[in-house]
Amino acid sequence: MSPTILVTGGAGYIGAHACVALIAAGYTPLVLDNLCNSSAESLRRVRRISGVEPRLIVADIRDAQALDALFAAQPVAAVMHFAGLKAVGESTAAPLRYHDNNVGGSVALLQAMQRAGVRTLIFSSSATVYGEPSVAQFREDMRCDPVNPYGRGKWMIEQMLGDLAASEPGWRIAALRYFNPVGAHPSGLIGEDPRGVPDNLMPYITQVAVGRLPALRVFGGDWPTADGSGVRDYIHVMDLAEGHVAALRHLLEHAPQRLTLNLGSGRGTSVLQLLHAFEHVIGRALPHEIVARRPGDIAAYWADPTRAAAVLGWRTQRDLSALCADAWRWQQANPRGYADA
Ligand SMILES: NC(=O)c1ccc[n+]([C@@H]2O[C@H](COP(=O)([O-])OP(=O)(O)OC[C@H]3O[C@@H](n4cnc5c(N)ncnc54)[C@H](O)[C@@H]3O)[C@@H](O)[C@H]2O)c1
């Protein structure tokens, strides 16, 4: 028997990669997604990679009836909760939309889990919960003080998960704080497919490389870092997906508990270093310009991944060049993302 794992937001970037990792580990992903930022094509691609197409229920996590019907129709061993809106800038312009979807959606999902007696959850949190600490290496026991509505929503959900676990025995919960997920499955069949101009660095670079965008804009060349550009912790999306499977196994095999874990490589890489690593992989230079810093950005941060290594025995495996090569394979094969299908 292959346990069914409900994957909310499973048609999205990280969720589709998690489906591949779940299938490889012997689980059956069942996807619930309203497709507001994704395409069902990603799951057809999962079939081409894994031989299994995850079943898709097109519904919103705020739809209590749809959730009850889903939990009534089959036993669900655990939930991986990826569904959410994720653009920091947009969250500042539309905070209520973000809190309704992300916080309200999580409340609705948790209530449905409670009704169904499903008490194992892996939640997509984010390094944005830390805010702007004075040290660059973020550790889970540091104070969280997020500085935008997106990050505050993630932090609210983390706190809500703590309240829930304290109020009722039996919950197994892991909040995974991602650093900067990049790259794609090495097949080039699934990858990041942002709508409009990408918010994140890697899809921006790959879209410049295929000629969809004229030049990379590097926000700030005067940060107090070695080359003046901002430093982040880039994690290959398959490492991230495997981290979820490790967390799932851990939760299912141990006594009820609540975990908060950073998922990152522990290495800081500057924007220019990532650009140069990518240029090395594709064998040519890309146009880029240094522009003003973006409001709300910080100079440098990366994960302390010690706790995830100690608790899960998980650490990142893929290096910068694998991450660039895989992102490039995906973009080259799908210059316009899933719209090319
Ligand atoms: N990509 C990143 O840089 C990053 C970093 C840290 C945390 N995260 C978190 O990881 C999760 C997945 O991110 P991603 O990059 O795969 O984003 P994504 O937009 O590709 O995937 C999110 C999926 O959730 C779906 N969705 C959104 N709201 C929904 C709702 N109300 N009901 C049902 N489905 C809904 C979308 O259609 C999409 O398929 C998000 O919660 C995000 O906040 C992402």
UniProtKB/TrEMBL annotation:
GO cellular component, one term: cytosol
Highest taxon, organism lineage: Bacteria
Domain NAD-dependent epimerase/dehydratase: from-to ranges: 5-255
GO molecular function list: UDP-glucose 4-epimerase activity
Alphabetic keyword roster: Carbohydrate metabolism, Galactose metabolism, Isomerase, NAD
Enzyme Commission number(s): 5.1.3.2
Catalyzed reaction equations: UDP-alpha-D-glucose = UDP-alpha-D-galactose
Any GO BP annotation: galactose metabolic process
Pathway(s) served: Carbohydrate metabolism; galactose metabolism
The protein's required cofactors: NAD(+)
InterPro entries attached to this UniProt entry: Epimerase_deHydtase, NAD(P)-bd_dom_sf, UDP_G4E
Pfam families hit by this protein: Epimerase (PF01370)
Protein family membership: Belongs to the NAD(P)-dependent epimerase/dehydratase family.
Subunit structure: Homodimer.
Identification of the protein by name: UDP-glucose 4-epimerase
Organism: Metallibacterium scheffleri
Lineage, top ranks: Bacteria, Pseudomonadati, Pseudomonadota, Gammaproteobacteria, Lysobacterales
